[in-house]
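User: Could you go from structure to sequence for me? I need the amino acid at each position, not a summary. Structure tokens:
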């Protein structure tokens, strides 16, 4: 057995904001991918994955929902034959490792599944997102369902609000100097503790005000600029967003990167923002001159995502 490939995702803009109903923009990231495979002799990571899938199978068996039902009999049989999720997507890095897994299980075992070939109305997209949210909650405690949706559709997705999502056309890449890149913190981040910190902070009126008056405002402006290809304005807004995140989301930024973050703002060589929930994994970088950013960040591993 060999399932279709599902890709990693990058939430370019909207981390945390989408929990509170502001805009978000997610794009597939084809450098990392995963697929369901079967092996008679399971060892190492494959064995671990198979055991984790058995736990996921139990979770899905006990789900009380009218949203979706699964062919649990086949799922169990395949697990007993040695099925595992073979993935190059790093876990705890904010690029959707559990999302790709959820998408592949839905694709393989859901009854009456919504396929990517049909006309994807807003209602169908919202239903898919809701199904994926319920499924992915097994991994994170609370999930928006966006990562699996992105992985399943393999399309850029624009989140206007919780009730309004649509596939987005993003400008095609150019061979310019500018770039979006990933900076490897070389630490694993865990989603659930970070989301809990955020939820606690949201109890504070000042923090809530900052989210709506600054964070959401700059995020929305960045998304509008990115989608319309307005690069000059984009960098101005990304800088503002980067400042707000450094000031208000310190627990989500690994300690070793507070200074690196501030250096980018000071030198204008690059601007950093969270990639996913933070706490480790990848940090997302934006630069008007990728060569300059590489020089400034020569002690770190960078990976190119998109060129301007």
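Assistant: Here is the amino acid at each position, in order:
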């Amino acid at each position: 057995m060999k399932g279709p490939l599902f890709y990693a995702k990058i939430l370019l803009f909207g981390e945390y904001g989408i929990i509170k109903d502001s805009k978000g923009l997610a794009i597939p990231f084809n450098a990392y991918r995963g697929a369901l495979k079967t092996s008679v002799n399971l060892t190492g990571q494959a064995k671990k994955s198979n055991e984790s899938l058995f736990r996921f199978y139990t979770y899905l068996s006990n789900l009380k929902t009218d949203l979706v039902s699964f062919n649990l009999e086949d799922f169990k049989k395949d697990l007993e034959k040695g099925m595992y999720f073979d993935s190059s997507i790093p876990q705890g890095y904010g690029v959707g490792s559990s999302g790709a897994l959820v998408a592949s299980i839905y694709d393989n075992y859901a009854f009456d599944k919504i396929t990517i070939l049909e006309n994807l109305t807003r209602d169908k997209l919202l239903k898919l997102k809701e199904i994926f949210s319920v499924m992915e909650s097994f991994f994170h405690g609370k999930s928006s369902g966006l990562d699996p949706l992105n992985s399943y559709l393999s399309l850029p997705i624009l989140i206007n609000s919780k009730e309004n999502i649509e596939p987005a056309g993003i400008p095609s890449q150019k061979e310019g100097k500018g770039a979006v890149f990933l900076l490897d913190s070389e630490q694993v981040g865990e989603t659930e503790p970070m989301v809990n910190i955020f939820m606690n902070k949201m109890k504070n009126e000042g923090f809530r005000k900052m989210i709506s008056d600054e964070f959401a405002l700059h995020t929305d402006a960045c998304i509008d600029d990115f989608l319309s290809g307005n690069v000059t304005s984009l960098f101005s807004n990304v800088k503002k967003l980067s400042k707000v995140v450094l000031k208000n989301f310190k627990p989500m930024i690994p300690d070793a990167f507070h200074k690196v973050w501030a250096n980018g703002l000071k030198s204008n060589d690059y601007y950093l923002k969270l990639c996913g929930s933070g706490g480790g994994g990848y940090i997302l970088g934006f630069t008007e001159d990728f060569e300059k950013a590489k020089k400034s960040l020569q002690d770190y591993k960078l990976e190119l995502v998109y060129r301007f």
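One structural detail worth keeping in mind: The two ends are 40 Å apart (CA to CA).
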